[in-house]
Amino acid sequence: MLTKLSELMFIDVLRRYIETLPAHKTGWLAGLRDPLIGKALALIHDRPAHHWTIDALAKHSGMSRTVFAERFAELVGIPSMHYVAKWRMQVASELLTGSNANLASIAADIGYESEAAFSRAFKRLFGVPPSAWRLGVRAGKAEPAK
Predict the structure, then answer these.
(1) What angle do CA 13, 18, 22 make, to 5 degrees?
(2) Is 139 or 119 the better-scoring residue by pLDDT?
(3) Which tens digit of pLDDT belongs to each residue from 68-96?
(4) Do residues 37 and 72 lie in contact, with contact meaning Cβ atoms separated by under 8 Å?
(5) CB of 33 closer than 8 Å to CB of 27
(6) What is the pTM of this model?
(7) Stretch (H or E) spanning 14
(8) Alpha-carbon gap, residue 73 to 81, rounded angstroms
(9) What is the DSSP string of 15-78?
(10) What is the DSSP string of 94-115?
């Protein structure tokens, strides 16, 4: 019961914080404030392995492709497909440190068809291969924001 109560309190604090964000503020919290972009963010977060496209996200959000792309980039601060890629890598980094799943399984869980493609993308973002990340090696690059 206390756990649920603390979760509800956290959600309320987060909602209040989002409501007070300045209009010029960008990031995923600013995107959540917008009901249409928030819907796209929820889809991306709920289904990172899905083969998302700008067209699919725009359709699910009830916007044209162009309006969606511009609005997403304006509110979140990066293009939607870059956000999808960063989110996938964030999920992967957590799976690497918090589970014993093999690289092929993690790659599939976040939408990569091959372990090699996943490893290249991971190294490009974090500066170290997934196997090194799992061992705690960091290249000094900032971790992607959620």
Answers:
(1) 135
(2) 119
(3) 999 999 999 999 999 999 999 999 999 99
(4) yes
(5) no
(6) 0.77
(7) helix 2-20
(8) 10
(9) HHHHHHS-TT--SHHHHHHSHHHHHHHHHHHH-TTS---HHHHHHHHTS-HHHHHHHHHHHHSS
(10) HHHHH----HHHHHHHTT-S-H
